[in-house]
Known about the structure:
The protein is an alpha/beta fold and 640 residues long. It is 27% helix and 26% strand.
Amino acid sequence: MKTKKKFLTILLTVCLVMAMIPMTVLAADEVQDSDTWDGSVATAFAGGTGAAEDPYQISSGAELAYLASAVNSGESYGDKYFVLTKDIDLNGLSWTPIANSFSDALFGGSDYSMFSGNFDGKGHMISNLTIGTASTPAEGDVFGLFGAADGKISNVNLNHVSINGVAKKVSGYAIGLTGGLAGSASGGIENCHVTDLSINMTTPENGNAAAYWIGGLVGAFDRTQGIKECSVSGNINEASGKGSIGLIGELGEASEISYSRADVSLDVEANARGGADVGGFIGKGNGNKNEETVIKNCYATGNVTGGSYIGGFAGSLWGLNIKNCYATGNVTQAVASMASFVGTDASAGYGYGSVKNCYSTGSVIGTVAYRYAFAMQDATERSEITNCYFADGNLEVKNAHEAAVAKSLTEMKTEDFTAALNADDKNNGWTFVEGRTPICGAEPADYSAVDAALESIPSDLTVYTDESVEGLNVATTSVVRGRVIARQAEVDEMAKAIEEAIAALEYKDADYSKVEEAIEKANGLNKEDYKDFTKVEEAINAVVRGKNIKEQAEVDEMAKAIEDAIAALEKKPAQAGSKTDQNTKTNTKTNTKTNPKADSSGIPKTGDHENAGLMLAMLYLSGAVIAGSVVIWKKKKYRA
Length: 640
């Protein structure tokens, strides 16, 4: 018996555990909002058809690797749409760029890969992206999350990006397009951010740098879609002293960058023969004069060291039109030319650009022959520099032909200086902030009101109606992170929408079922049978309708009051001749009638053959019980 009980106990426990497992797994899935890659490659995306209204869903590192594998095998996904649904930790494992071969395109060939889809990160983070190591750098012609892309990329956050690479030698030329987000891009890029960046690149020996462009965000950007509201922070090191290096390595003709920022420290080999153009924000333009090649309302704060032509904002102007921008980093140890904002200009008229309404505060440090306080300007009339300023600490290196004006940092922190930069046009975007130099609008927006609104969301939303909770969900999912301060009003509207949705939350109705049961019970009674029915009626009349779920206790008290009143009822005493009295007598007579099938002892008479089958069944059952008891007794006796 003990063994049987033990077996039943174990069986019951196993059943309970098995019943609980699915619930535990589901609960874990509900709270899990990130994935850590194990190096595997999926065979499909998480969902979607690729249509704009039903995009492919990527929820894991394996699915992201599947995208890379498909593109690198020739699938471009033109006009297809993708969304990230979770944060993805690439776990420091070796990453192969999405579209990992591009050099043949530069030589007019067709043997290259390209991502042509639209990729929306939905604000999710991809972390620990690693290509190559310090001891074993990767060789390739493109480096980044994407190698080459001509589709739109938006709302992607990258953190802890590590790229160690060597440009690929193709037909005697060094080809290496490197960016934290993409090596080469020609589609729109919006609201993408790279933090904790580390890029270490070099070229192979005896290779001329034909297309060697390195950017914290993108190595080379072309076409007209533009880059908007992006940022990078980290470090870039280049060991050969070649190429174009910055937040963007090189910007193509008629391309535009707006409201973006770079906090990247750049350290490039000071190679007199290398010719590296290095800028805190951009390496250089593409060399063609075009008024539509524009960088506006952007800034750079990183220090720039080494290289040939270096500037706090741009290494070489070469067709760029820069307006409403600033740089604060120091420039040091160039081997050809350097300045606090633009290191050098184009060598001929076809590549001239312009700089307008800009300022710099960094120092120009070093003894190179060509030093400028703000930007390269000499006796030859070149690119136009208008309404620009530099910190007066650089007066000693100012060229007599420079148009930029010296200002002290104290002067730069005044409202008058802000007004001067705006040049009577507030659309230029300069804003005065007490205690600092003017801001251009690319600075991060303040999300403190959004965060406070999110913190104030009730912890238990199950007590509210589905409709009102859905309204809150719409408000919270509409929050877009990474906006710049120029769009602060939109961020404030996000906070307001959440606050209003919280205020509009409606409690579910209270449950009146117990009240209804109690009232139904009371209505089933004949109040004439009781001494006093008024307490029941008073309890029913005291019911207040329209209570919500937070007032459920009050509703339950109403039901209890009715039940208590019913329980306290006292029946009227029965009177002679009354209907109640007659019913009582009748019932008594009925109950005391002699059973016609019973003898004087009250035992039923035998001979009732109608239930013979029932009697046989009972006898059989009795016999079985007795036989079973005997077997058990014998087994016990045997064991004894």
